[in-house]
Design goal:
73% helix
């Protein structure tokens, strides 16, 4: 054990360390380090306030053989928040930085820990680190020693703390960091390492340049593979990793080039995995799956290909699972995917031919206004201006449902607007006016002209006039 006298004696000796040779300095450094490692109360504060920090800085500056031990000493001291500012004032960060170019892995570890702890939660110091070129060094260390887990951890934590800064993102893009992160994600030994890498990827994924770099380096595939390996378990850390990783894939698909690479003409690993998410029992994966399909469906040729590959029934099945008391986010995501898929003209007809109308009809019976609103919007887009309109409304059930939505006194206004939009499309079609008359739609519209919402009343009057022209 380190007693108070030996600690005080060591501090006294070190404060005049310019007169001591290395052999004499080492035992005093050992004493200080032992006090810190034994968690002696207030040892770090006592060391920092004793006036020895400039001597420690000088030892590091001179690249003494004791530098590694001094770096460890500083790293242990900097666990205490109270000593971080004194360490900065003593220029310890500046004199430590050159040691990140060392060929000694222990020196790199101690230096990385010391710098990381001193600069923790200090935006100004972190910015100074980036300006001084710390990013290339950290990436280089991970590349050089990918199997040294403690050292890799230190570098990843440092990158995680810096990755929110624009200057750091630019530096990381220049370093081609994606391949390093992909390799480390694949060999992550535990949830903690995975989480740090996912945080870095999440922070960097905001950049379009890095989105593409990630796609080209196989980041989405690595994330997909990780999700596959964790699925089916109940460990909270694993579930958290699945959530972050699937959200990240959705985010990466917002870049047009990265999205196309992941789609791979419908045979891409990521697209195949996304399809399996739609059928998963994990609500988070269902949500990410539907959002991902909506992103893939931003491109018309993708939409046509996905219809060929049979994606629509999966989305409708997913919606049916959540239609009554399910997850509202999944409903919205599924409906957005369905709507995007229905944009290309060829898809509209095919979706109707594939029996989508019948399933939409059953979903419309839901009492969820947001679901009804989006379904009606999708249905309107599918039939607007198409000769298939008559086919969709060949029986009067859908028209009757629209009529009931208009007449429902407690029905949501946005649903009534959506229903009116669809009826307007039908009223403008010569083949559908007779059908609208057959369910007495004019009567419902007439009642709506007295609605308290002037916009709703005006739209109903306009459609009524259009129908009146044909009678």
């Amino acid at each position: 054990m380190t007693d108070i006298d030996s600690l005080s004696g060591a501090l006294q000796a070190l404060s005049v360390s310019t007169e001591l040779i290395e052999e004499e300095l080492k035992p005093h450094l050992d004493t200080l380090l032992t006090a810190l490692l034994e968690k002696k109360k207030d040892a770090a504060v006592e060391i920092a306030s004793s006036g020895v920090l400039p001597s420690l800085a000088q030892t590091l500056r001179s690249r003494s053989p004791l530098s590694c031990q001094v770096a460890l000493l500083v790293a242990e001291m900097a666990r205490e928040a109270a000593v971080r500012e004194p360490c900065i004032e003593a220029d310890l960060v500046k004199v430590l930085l050159p040691h990140l170019s060392s060929n000694d892995q222990e020196m790199l570890l101690n230096t990385g820990r010391a710098i990381g702890r001193i600069c923790f939660d200090n935006a100004f110091q972190q910015d100074q680190l980036v300006q001084s070129g710390v990013i290339p060094r950290l990436v280089s260390i991970i590349r050089q020693y990918p199997e040294n887990d403690p050292l890799v951890n230190v570098c990843l934590l440092a990158l995680c703390n810096l990755a929110d800064m624009d200057s750091a993102r630019e530096a990381l893009a220049e370093q081609g960091v994606a391949d390093v992160l992909t390799l480390q994600l694949k060999r992550a030994p535990d949830g903690e390492r995975r989480h740090v890498i996912l945080e870095i990827l999440g922070a960097l994924g905001e950049s379009d340049t890095l989105k593409l770099q990630f796609a080209e380096s196989g980041v989405p595939e690595a994330l997909s593979e990780m999700i596959r390996s964790l699925q089916g378990g109940s460990d909270p850390h694993d579930l958290c990793s699945i959530k972050i990783a699937s959200n990240l894939i959705v985010s990466l698909l917002l870049g047009d080039e990265s999205m196309q690479k992941c789609f791979g003409e419908g045979s891409g690993v990521v697209y195949q995995d996304v399809l399996s998410w739609l059928q998963s029992s994990n609500t988070q994966l269902q949500l990410s799956g539907a959002l991902a399909i909506a992103n893939f469906a931003r491109n018309d040729s993708n939409c046509v290909k996905m219809l060929d590959l049979g994606v629509v029934p999966h989305i409708l099945t997913l919606l049916e699972q959540h239609v009554d008391e399910g997850d509202v986010s999944v409903q919205h995501a599924g409906l957005s995917a369905l709507r995007n898929l229905a944009i290309p003209a060829t898809n509209k007809v095919r979706m109707l031919e594939d029996g989508v109308t019948e399933r939409i009809k059953s979903l419309l019976r839901s009492d969820m206004p947001p679901v009804q609103f989006k379904l009606l919007g999708t249905l309107r887009m599918m039939v607007d201006g198409h000769e298939c309109m008559k086919e969709v409304f060949r029986d009067s059930e859908l028209l009757t449902m629209l009529k009931e939505m208009l007449e429902d006194p407690v029905g949501a206004i946005e649903v009534k607007f959506s229903a009116l939009g669809l009826i307007c499309s039908l009223a403008n079609s010569s083949v559908m006016k007779e059908d609208l008359h057959s369910v007495n739609m004019k009567e419902s519209l007439s009642k709506l002209t007295e609605h308290s919402s002037s916009k709703l009343a005006s739209q109903a009057s306009s459609i009524l006039a259009s129908l009146g022209d044909s009678s």
